[in-house]
Amino acid sequence: MPTEHKPERLAFVGFGEAATAFLDGWADGRPAHVAAFDLKTEDPLTAAGMRARYAAHRVHDAGTLAGTLDGVTAVFSVVTADQALEAARAAAPHVPPGCIWFDCNSCAPDTKRQAAGIIDGAGGRYVDVAVMAPVHPKRHLVPLLVAGPHAAEGVALLEALGMRPKPVGDAVGAASSIKMIRSVMIKGMEALTAECFLAARRAGVEEAVIASLEASDPGVDWRGRGAYNLERMLVHGTRRAAEMREVAATVAALGLSDGMSRATAEWQAALSRRGVEAGEPDLIARIDRALSAL
């Protein structure tokens, strides 16, 4: 299939926030056939909910990974970071020849290179994709970095879908390196937000700490940013913790200390596992909800 044309048949492996955001963004311009597979459909506790989600987004539920990939020309792998390599292994026997495998997962470059070897070895065309912002509200227009030997074909196909890819190199790992190293700062700031503000509130000095931060750096909306950072951790912390473990692996592979990234993963996981609702976007209210669960 000429990749400058929109694919008529594509699939999602993993059907969470990213997959549904892309589909919602494509709206009436979506491919004729969209299939999806998620491990949650194999769990009796979550299968009904996943199938309802498939139906709501008008995707084909083949019931198996092999059936999902049958005849497709492009696949978006959008699982959690810790499942990205396993997804490639499971899919490899079923990937149609020449099918483009968009690995959109937040993984270390070494992990992506392993996945590329598996997919390319099975006759597919692996593309390293880094999603560089939250998929909401941008949906399919979220900035994407694309790398690898098949990046040009991948960019053409993504553009045909109305997406916004930017090529960053011919080597697998070039896109993920940017994403991973950026996350040291972005997710690290979230973890610092939690540690600072939760400690300040428990000590009864939160207003003084916030006032000091505002005086030191008046260009930052500390209350608004703090509330946002806590929301990201409470709602998405499990996925972000998995990403930060891949970030730690990226930093360690460069011969540097990965202590900050590992600690960030611990904070992300600690908040998300409590199952606390983010609630209204108020910093103190969110701090109190988090503290009540710790």
What do these coordinates show?
- The chain is of the alpha/beta class and 294 residues long.
- Helix content is 54%, strand content 12%.
- The chain has twelve helices and seven strands.
- It has helices spanning 17-26, 47-56, 65-69, 84-91, 109-121, 135-138, 151-160, 174-203, 206-216, 222-253, 259-272, 283-293, and strands spanning 9-13, 33-37, 74-77, 100-103, 125-131, 143-147, 164-169.
- It has a seven-stranded mixed beta sheet, with helices on both faces.
- Helix 1 (17-26) links the parallel strand 1 and strand 2 (33-37).
- The N and C termini lie far apart (53 Å).
- The model has no long low-confidence stretch (mean pLDDT 95).
What is the H/E string? EHEHHEHEHEHEHEHHHHH
Largest sheet: 7 strands, mixed
Which spans have pLDDT < 50 for at least 5 consecutive residues? none
Q: Overall mean pLDDT score?
A: 95
| Arrangement of strands in the largest sheet | 2-1-3-4-5-6-7
Rg calc = 20 Å
Helix content: 40-55%
> Which shape, going by the Cα principal axes?
globular
What structural class do the secondary elements suggest?
Answer: alpha/beta
Number of strand elements? 7
Distance between the termini: 53 Å
* Beta-strand content bin: 5-15%
Number of helices: 12
